[in-house]
Amino acid sequence: MAQRDPLKDFLVELFGPAPGTRNGRTGQPTPEPAVGTYRTFAPVAVAAAALAFYAPQLADTAITDTVDQARQLITTVHGYRWPLGALAAGWSVLDIVRWRGHRQRLALEAQLRQTTRHLPVKVTVAFPPGIGALRSAKIRLPRGAIIRPKEMDEFTTAVRGAAARTGTHTYTVRHHAHRDLILITRTPIEPDTRSPRHKALQTALSAGTIFKEPNVTVHSCDEDGIETGYKITFTPSLNSGARGFQAKVDEALAALAGDHKSGRTWATAWTPAEGYLMMYLRAPLPTRVDHPLALVDENLRHLPYATGAANLSLYWDVSTKSNKPHCLIVGPTGGGKTSVIRTLLTEASRRGIPFLGVDPKMIELDGLEGYPGCAAIVYDAVRSAMLVRALHAEMMARNHYVHVKKIEPSQLPLLIAVLDEFFILSGKWQRLAKDEDEEIRAQVKQLDPLGAWADLAVLARSAGIRLLLGVQRPDASLFGSSSGNARDNFGTRISLGNLSQDGALMMWGDAHVGREVDTSIPGRGVVTALDGSPVDAQMWWTPNVDPHPNKWNQLSDEEKAIVHGLAPIESPTFEFFSTELREFVEAERALARRAREFGDAPEPSVLTDFPTDHDTVDEVADAIPASAVTEGMVILLDDDNGHPVPVTVDTVAVVRDKDTGVVLETVMSINAGERVKTTVHFDATEVVMLPEPDTVLTA
């Protein structure tokens, strides 16, 4: 292969090829190019100027003194040396500019031929063409030339890649097919003044597949010019209207935006039908909120209990029209569950709504006994079973009243029934059903408290009875298979502390919600928002309202002021529609009065004249569903004499329905010592007792 001669190539480019040049491969004449041969005349002007400047020296060396006429001519030329120099310089600059334009035209011609296989008729660039980059160009195509879209895209990419090297301009290439013309124009690139947060949001959305054609714009800024809000537009899709999709996008956007220096957190407001969402800053959750003395919600059927983002008050809607009539509170000891219950019940009392409750631990609700609006607080397992049955009779009587009087259910007075520590209560009922006393077993079977409770959870809404359930941990077998999935009727839900993955799924339908709560802040948790979605919230602090000196003297002056301020001016009235509930409340109040007078409450002997020993049951600190037991856990089981003893669980096997996943049976292997193992079977509704409080929760 012959070596190329750089000087020859430069001269050919500068002065053009010799006439009649043929193609080196085919021997055929080269097609006539659209860009003609570049001709330069600057060397002539430069030579003339050089001759004018060096004329005297030339005259001294090449011309004799006798030739006066030649000397005079040289002298005259030398007198025009500066104009000739300026002409040579200007001509040289002009030729350089022409040469630059020639190079740009050659490049455009080559790019067009390579991408579209068309030889342009004429290529014109703007004059002056621009030293650093092409300014504009016009390419005339052969008549009827067809350029496919893909070819046009390739040509556009080639133009932008070759001409936009400075990075300060962008090029627009338009093909006017009806005119057989291609126009290239240059526009300056606006400097990117976006903030790093703005760039991160736009880059992430553009690179992903979450939205189609996303665009991020600044919506608002604070006084210092810091961005506080963004508007994100997109093409609406089926996903953009789904609540689960929106929740995941919200989490991703908040992570991309990062922490704001003001300490506020990012929130979103979706308008999927119009194809946009707003990102804005909201005030952070407070670390403590004392129970407000003023009615923050004038609706007497809204019971506020927490503060959410942007100081939004969250409430439990107990009205007849509510689609979340019953409330479920989940929280470990010390998480603030008792304070939330006190908040809800004191708010109910302020609004004229009476309540009654069950406290199997005898420490959670005892301070509410005797409070305005409190009908009774029951502690005994037998009396609790009777209360649930009496509530069932009250529900049936109320429904009968509505049917006979032809009134709307909303005209019925409201009543709140509280069952705290439901697992412990359920365990006590199950132990009573297996009691060695035949009369007790028969009476508990007749009362059927679990069945009555399940009916209440499903039917109490229309009767004006609202249920408030407190448990230490959520579980799929919360109400058992015989309850008809009553858990779904508890639309208002509150979780305090961190949930397990299964607990988060049970409470919120999402394995990630409620698992990253800041437990260093008392009263922090996740609650049901007004639209039904889970949101972070700070529960209100309501001190113990027990007037007993041992409790009252432990309160600060500020807490005492809160208790005094919450007390209603007029105590709510009780309206009973059934004889069973009225008689039960009267009897329970009589027992409470006697307990206050004598300092001790006698064991009620309603079911039998023979006293029974349930002390060991009352001393149990906690209970959990049998299906929630794990290997190595210590539980209480009855020995041959009926006394509970601690045993260690060796293995656990939970049998579930293969279609629904509902627990059918739990089989445990217990290590009884001396290499003897005992197998114990539990049905879906049974619970087991723990020897220490919160063994599972603190594990």
UniProtKB/TrEMBL annotation:
Q: Which InterPro entries match?
A: FtsK/SpoIIIE/SftA (IPR050206), FtsK_dom (IPR002543), P-loop_NTPase (IPR027417)
Annotated ATP binding lies at 331-338
In its UniProt record, a GO molecular function of this protein is:
DNA binding
Which keywords are on file for this protein?
A: ATP-binding, Nucleotide-binding, Plasmid
Keyword Chaperone in annotation: no
One Pfam short name: FtsK_SpoIIIE
Q: Does the keyword Membrane apply?
A: no
Q: Where is the FtsK domain?
A: 311-505
Superkingdom, natural source? Bacteria
Q: What is this protein called?
A: FtsK/SpoIIIE family protein
